[in-house]
Amino acid sequence: MPLRETLMIGIRPYFLLVISAAMSIVGATLVTSMAHAQTGQPGAGDGGQVRIQGRTGNEPAAAPSSLFDGVLDLKDEMRAFVQRIAAYGRSQKRNFVVLSHGGLELLAKRNTDDDKVAPARTYMRSIDGMIVDAMFAGRPVFGQPTSADFRERIEPLVTLARDNGLAIMTMDFAKDRGTIDRVLQESAKRGFAPAVVPVPAADLATLPTYPARPFNENSSSVLSLKDVKNFVYIANSAGFGRQAEFALKVHGTNYDVVIVDVMHGRQPLSKRAVETLKYKKLGSRRLVLARMDVGFAASYQYYWKEGWREGSPSWITAPHPDDPDRYLVEFWQPQWQEMLSGNDTSYLFGIVKQGYDGVVLESLNSFLFYEGGVYAFAESLP
Hints:
Strand content: 15-25%
Largest sheet: 8 strands, parallel
Radius of gyration: 20 Å
Low-confidence stretches: 1-60, 62-69, 374-382
Mean pLDDT: 82
Order of helices and strands: HHEEHEEEHEHEHEEHEEEHEEEEHHEH
Number of strands: 17
């Protein structure tokens, strides 16, 4: 198998599943900034296809030609970005957890001179763990066992991550109870913390109905990822009702990790709500992590300014094929990176100040689009 195929996992399924989870800055600054947010619904094109800036939704967007000159090593740029995010988070809060969602390709570096592959140890030491999607079920067909070809490509990288001390959490996609039971057991047998969800991640807006209680439920406090046996991922909490209702509903469970979007509807989750989420029903402590999208900007998020669009600012590029209100960004550009991290008006500063234990970094594979439009042809989960 060619080296590129071995390392190129392809855009992992969450890339087309998750919704943007842009972070808040605390208090009045965030609420004021939200006035600039602009919402909208995708319009229907001919034949039910979504139109995106004059293209149909399944038509690949062209990556800027200037990026194909080989000047930038985009994997290194993404690794460096993650490392800066991690360093800043821990400068603000000791033991701040940094979890990657996908981005398996970043774990290894290729020497272009001799074609040898080496572990990206500096990068791996900057993160604490990974969420790996569809390791056992859901790739390429939702609810079906993951293909042998995909497993063969990701297994060496997952093993590399585990051998370098990273915690592995798996998110698989299935509805059948027998499949769910099998996947939970198989993941746990390998020492991973599993979750099996019945809908694409973008639609995760409720607590799981099966199993009714967390898999491997335990009463112990969880203070680091090495103690995690299960987790719950909620992309949109608005359907729970008011913030207090959401916080109390999740508080009444015993999941070891709760991963949430920092926005509850149009408002950020309050410090009080975050504090409530930190405790299991049994009273023991758990981790609460906030989602942060490093590869996309969204016109429905608070930071979006009037007049922003594709190409303005210049680092906002092609719209997402399935969500035209989200736009790929040139993630290596200082303006975007400063919005996310490194100062007291950044998303990450707000995450820390709101009391979160850490962050889950999303869309780490966005560099693949700029490497040659791979993103536009990625397989997606239904």
